[in-house]
Amino acid sequence: MGADTGGLRIAALGPLRAWRGDRPLDTGPAQQRAVLTSLTLRCGQVASADELVRDVWGPEPPASAHAAVRNHISRLRTVLESGSAAPTTLVSVAGGYALHLPDGALDVSRAERLHARAQAARSHGDLEAAVRFLVEAEALWDGTPLTGVPGPYAQRQRDRLTEYRLLLVEARLSLELQLGGHSRVVGELLTLADEHPLREGLRALQMLALYRCGRQADALAGYTEARRHLAAELGVDPGPELERLHQRMLEADPALAPQPGAAAAPPAPGPAAGPDRPPWVPPAQIPPDAPDFTGRREEGRHVRHALAGAVRTDATAPVVCVIHGMGGVGKTALAVHAAHAVREQFPDGQLYADLRGAGRERADPYEVQELFLRSLGVLASNVPGGREERTALYRSRMAGRRLLLLLDNAADTEQVSALLPGTAGSAALVTSRTALTCLPATTCTALEPFSEQEALALLERIAGSERCRQEQRTARDLVRACGMLPLAVRVVGARLAARPRWTLATLAERLSDRSQRLGELEAGSLAVESVFHFGYSSLDEPEARAFRLLAIPEVPDLSPPAAAAVLDCDRREAEALLEALVHHGLLEPGEPGRYRYHDLLRLFARHRTLDTDPAPTRQAALSRIARFHLTGTSSAMRAERPYSRLPDTTDADGSPGAAFTDALHAQEWMLHELPAMLAVAGQILHHPYRPVSAEDTRTLSCLLALLMTFTDFCLPWDTIHQLGHTVLRAADHHGERLATVFGCIAAAVACAQSGHHEEAAALAARADATLDPADRVLAVRTVYTMGVVATVRPGNLGEAIGHFRSAHALACGNGEHGMAAQCSISLARAELALDRPHQALEAARDALARCTTGDNPVGIALARRVVGDALERLGRYEEAVTEYGAALAVCRAHGLHAQRARTLLGLASVLTAVDRPEQARTCAAEAGAALAQLGDATGEAQARAVLDRLPAAGPSAPQGPRGAGATER
Description:
By secondary structure, the chain is mainly α.
């Protein structure tokens, strides 16, 4: 048992001491002893420098900590090494250190071996030998473990070793009672029960010893004392074992009395030991906790608090906690961590099963019942074959106990329900990729991917904090490439830890290739792609097809109608498929009615579609969603401006799957779908090797032209500029005349807004020249576009006015009163830019006269606002206030958010002019907030400028020109 007396020995079960043979060694000052403790109790495992720093100083070490560790290592080598040329005891390994001790050199290891021999002796019925081994193990303690050693690691080990000694003592005393030694141990038990009043196991042994000594009253008083302490300290009653023992004593159960010539039965729960089976031991099946568990502070607290409710005295049902989320998000890690934190509250044991719910080979819950029954002491031959009988026995075995069940990777409610306890006192912790909404859960915790800070913290724990801090920006790039998915971050950390010579940039470069990223996210048994494949393999064919095809459009999220377009099915079928993918943890619900992929799941799905679906199938899916965007935009324009005839000229049939109820509904749809529209257009037009088809050319040219009417949405003009030019090249290739006109209009407006004036003028002129002379509707739009382009060109306001008047005449000739009103509004703005407010007022009033409330609320709001602008310029401030107020009323009635924000901005300016600073401040602040939300940086800056002028004494001067150009509203 002992170590070689000539070799190195270390004692930790008291003051930390070391000897070589019989000669004591100087282990140095406190911090050096803390480093030695950290290396010794890792039993030969490698500890990195970062780990040693944390062990000694905690999470906030001094700047000199790493240097101090190196110095302590150097001095410890001088003390511990036997004098060989190269270190053999305290060695450097892979950027860390390990301490290799001779067999039996550490007293902790000797205690553990003696404990194991005691357990083996007990299992063979040799209780006396078991007691001797336990007495020998206890004798190794020489006071409080690691006395005087500082640091958080030493404290944790001190607590563990103190608890371990109590476990050995409790096991020895239980054996002594079985051997009839109650009178010999009763005094020791009285002292221990007083020192540890919350340990129900010790209290039960004390009560049994007193009872067998004939001190029944003292034994019952021990129960009363235990109940008082538990209520005062924890707010709970004694557990079921202590309750049963107390009741048996009240009933004078003869089985509790010492039996002459035989060992008395212990009071422990579970089946009695027999000659053919060892004593029952409460199961402890929870997998080991991750030593580098990081993050999830709030989620963990929530789960622990819920599990603690299982031991409340007023509980009437078992506690059921569900943790759900996509594969790789860390459900099992959190569940295991929480289970270890509360395991002491479940003294009758902890059961674990992997239900394999993410794949096709799901665990049979009734087979799991059998495994759990055997863990609870039922012989395999006594487990009923029928499901109902087995379930009845299962729940009976669990009744009255405090058990914690960890049911990992559950498939559905049915699988879990058969395994839940039937009575209060126990708890089930369930992980699943779905929320298990039909399960009677006490609490349900949804896990999202890490925040960036949590992801970085985990990367630092695994790869080394110093290494990550040296490349902070690259570390952020790495966790972003992982999509903040904990499993992916763990894989990246593991790969870096295994390759200490790699920089973070080396791995970041490998992950930058999206086509190869999933292949790089693999380390040993950890593989992100494998986790995703489990979920994918459980899908039926329609679900698998939906999972693949819906990942093709590179859009932020999808609505059911958009998904229906991609899948070429009706909305109800699409919504059912979307919900099925959410159920399998392969899609995430976003805002109400929206669904999105995690970045890595989208990559996985796109790999599957490239392997499974032919190119024409993939292209058709993209074409269908582009068509969906066109018909939706056309329908939105009809709802917002029913007077307009522009949708009639486009290749659209009118509906996105559901009619819009009003202009506000249409605007909301446009705001939601606009990023997806532009993304899909870019995906089709900028494909690296596939040419743009004639059908897609027509669809996208019409879509871009219709988008030009929604300039209030602060469109990304550079993107539209690029898309417009690509559409033009495709239109020229296919000889699509209408597509050429639409592409020129979109590109011209985008160029004008981006400051490319000459190019914009050339494109607008080309649109007018390419137009079919018989197309009177588009003729108005091309002339109007030339006016918009001329408006922003320096010195061309006169030309712009001419174009707007021509477009006005054409619109009137077509009977398009709404378009004529729009031309008058733009004309009025051009006149204001030329500082001709009288002409501007005349044009704005013409626009107002051509609009009707029911037919053109946008035109009315715009016209009244421009009337207000002209009146303000003329110094007729009170009339201007009235017009702005009327415009605001229309905006509020019809949900015109962008128009309302800009009207508030104009009202703030005129209120400043009439010396109403507080009202002006309110209007400007509200306008600035709304414009910021709309992404209108220019308007937001104008609102700030108004606010900045307000503190000055006296009214502000009237506003100058606000610009004249606008596309059709």
